[in-house]
Design goal:
alpha/beta; Rossmann fold; six-stranded parallel sheet
């Protein structure tokens, strides 16, 4: 399982796949955390390689050139962080791109234009993969956020390179998640939140054989409470998954995994309004209202459950945190997790957004840069991008 510090880069042209898919508004980057996460690998490669060619996708242009999804703002931000010139190529393959790479001076950096402007990227087209590979001598993947995709720049390109390895970001993800999944300090606690049980079934099933305790919050908890026969008002429920929810509850009992659901809720008319109907115990939910956040008794319960944890893995918020009125359950949980003397790992798009919104990203031991990759890895799935590099979970 080669990593970048195990590969000879001197005198080589390196093709570095990054996840630079950052949020843009009117051409201005709103959050550059993914770019900053790539800096250690960028600096290491620049110091050793002869030339550095960067590539990434941006958004979902569906194989067409969309000017609003150009990587120009990203090139500018990388240049600022590295304090050196970073050119942007007009495309990601072709003669003009080859000429620009040829003209790079030693230590030069070129960012290729959005890979997804070509349908061959998401189609994992062999010819597109071959053209990308022909641009460099060594391939480095440091885009953990896309290793669950069998795309040309993630898997196909490896078939055409003599030397391929992973960067420091993927190395860090692999080390932390391998530790959590294979040799966790116990008690090992999974926190699972978010809206839908359907997106977390694989996660919950996989952790039945790994976790000591599972805490379930968010709207997905409503499906479990309804499976137990309790009212949930007008809350989001996946009716077709009630049998699977019952199965998970029974399996937790059989395997002696302590599974906790919220015991009280903050209710309101809907997630958009600031008005609330107050806090209700889970047995007394109003028929005309929605469950939108966890209540103070749940905070106390979850805090007690977490205080002696050895490892905590968290994916998914506890409520409709986008509305400050219904964010207290999630914010309180962040504060609890950050104060526990445990290895704390969090990931997923909403979880990442929530933690950054609270400014507590530096108080989590490891905040994964992957959304789908993080979740699929926790589900026990084999990720195509890691498999292509020969990286296996321990």
């Amino acid at each position: 399982m080669p990593f970048i510090d195990e590969v000879h880069l001197e005198g080589k042209t390196v093709l570095l796949r990054l996840d630079l898919n950052v949020p843009l508004q009117d051409g201005v980057i709103q959050d550059d955390s993914r770019i900053r996460a790539a800096v250690p690998t960028l600096e290491y490669a620049i110091q050793r390689a002869d030339k550095l060619v960067l590539c990434s996708h941006m958004g979902k242009p569906k194989g067409k050139r969309v000017p609003e999804l150009s990587l120009q703002p990203v090139a500018k931000r990388i240049a600022e962080l590295l304090e050196r010139e970073v050119q942007l190529a007009p495309d990601c393959i072709g003669d003009e791109v080859r000429a620009m790479i040829q003209d790079l001076t030693p230590g030069g950096v070129l960012l290729l234009e959005n890979l997804r402007f070509h349908p061959g990227e998401t189609d994992n087209d062999p010819e597109f993969s071959r053209e990308l590979a022909s641009l460099a001598d060594v391939y480095v993947n440091d885009a953990f956020g896309v290793v669950h995709r069998a795309h040309a720049s993630v898997t196909g390109v490896v078939d055409h390179m003599d030397t391929a390895c992973a960067g420091f970001l993927i190395q860090k993800e692999w080390r932390y998640l391998s530790k959590a999944l294979s040799n966790p300090d116990r008690p090992f606690v999974l926190i699972s939140g978010g809206a839908k049980v359907s997106s977390k079934l694989g996660l919950l099933q996989n952790f039945m054989d790994r976790a000591d305790r599972i805490l379930i919050g968010g709207a997905m908890a409503c499906t479990f409470r309804k499976a137990e026969g309790y009212p949930v008002g007008k809350s989001l429920v996946e009716e077709d998954l009630i049998p699977q929810a019952k199965e998970i509850l029974n399996k937790a009992w059989d395997k002696e995994v302590s599974l906790y659901l919220p015991v009280d809720y903050l209710m309101g008319p809907n997630a958009e309004q600031e008005k609330t109907y107050g806090v209700f115990p889970f047995q007394d939910i109003r028929s005309d209202a929605m469950i939108l956040d966890t209540g103070p008794a749940t905070h106390t319960l979850f805090s007690e459950t977490l205080k002696d944890a050895g490892t905590i893995v968290w994916n998914g918020p506890m409520g409709a945190f986008e509305n400050p009125t219904y964010s207290q359950g999630s914010v309180g949980l962040i504060q609890t997790v950050c104060n526990v003397d445990a290895l704390t790992i969090a990931g997923g798009g909403d979880t990442d957004s929530l933690i950054h919104r609270c400014g507590m990203q530096n108080q989590i031991d490891f905040l994964s840069t992957g959304g789908g990759s993080f979740l699929e890895l926790l589900e026990g799935k084999e990720l195509p991008g890691l498999k292509a590099l020969g990286i296996r979970m321990e």
